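Table 4 source record.
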Amino acid sequence: MREASLQAFRQLVNSGQMGMQERSIYDHLAEHGEPLTLQEIAKVTGFGINSVSGRVHGLKKKKILQECQKRKCHLTKRMVTPVFIAGVRND
């Protein structure tokens, strides 16, 4: 993980600006090690898709997550844009 991305993440966590669901999504992405679709995130976190969508949108606005190259979702089999931790991968 790039130092700037890690610093931004730590600042959000320490300031209390990152909620529990955002933290859980971030932690699952970091643990999984590769981009996930919203449906895949919903499955591994147990959160509803609407919650995941809102939290991921917020994390993208904070530049904590970024969109990656489109691929087929393992669950829906549709072409979608997965997300991952900003600055870690460019695919």
